[in-house]
Amino acid sequence: MGKMFKLISGILVLFCGINVMSMADPVIVVQSTTSTANSGLYDSILPQFEQQTGIRVNVVAVGTGQAIKNAIRGDGDVLLVHAKSAEEKFVANGWGVGRFDLMYNDFIFVGPDNDPAGLSDATSAVDALIRISSERALFASRGDDSGTHKKERLLWASAGLDPTTSSGDWYRETGSGMGATLNVAVGMNAYAMTDRATWISFGNKLGFKIVFDSDQKLFNQYGIILVNPSRHPHVNAKDGQIFINWMLGKKGQTAIANYTLDGQQLFFPNAN
Prior knowledge:
By secondary structure, the chain is α/β, with parallel strands linked by helices. The chain folds into two domains: 25-105 and 221-269, 3-Layer(aba) Sandwich (D-Maltodextrin-Binding Protein, domain 2); 106-218, D-Maltodextrin-Binding Protein, domain 2 (3-Layer(aba) Sandwich). It has helices at 2-24, 35-38, 41-53, 64-72, 84-92, 125-135, 147-158, 178-187, 196-201, 237-248, 250-258; strands at 27-32, 56-61, 78-81, 96-112, 139-141, 171-173, 191-195, 208-212, 219-227, 260-261, 264-265, 268-269. The protein is globular and about 55 Å long.
């Protein structure tokens, strides 16, 4: 009985010791856009960062607009999103400490194989949207103030069109993430605009294809920002900055470049 008690006590001490050690591990929270998570990028690069630094990273993957709101509330240490003007406003208003270009890819239009609005013949992204509107072809929009939705709104404005006047008709706002919106688009044979990384990793294409890309206006820049600890003293600025430095440095940029899916590179590092 005495030996059994000692054995159990030893196991408990060991277990508690492991818990204390794990609790002491430094942790940061990254408020992030969904595309970097859904594409599998974090699954590839974060284990490398954690192994090299001992810092654990918890990612909150939401639309860019929501990620910025969360960071403003102080619910994170680092912001990683893709809406440059909104990011610059975030910093200008004192919520962030500097903003840095991290990587890029592009937006694309996807749709059914028969391409009813003829987007494959479009001369620009704006022309693609004009064709959709003219044909009253079904279009699934995220409608969630994400980076993708912000870009879509800019393109509609450049076309001189307000698709929300047809909301519920040919223009359908899902209020959902990119994966869910693509599922809606596929389900009702509608066009959609998405970042290329999410499309490559999307597993429910079912006869859908890229119908238009290769316009400079579809360039998709990602930025990274430290949440300002002077606004939120609880921010883990030290480890957050270590993460940012790693992502912007050779190791992080190489890890980003080396991540591929089905033989395709999803993100292209461009830290200055």
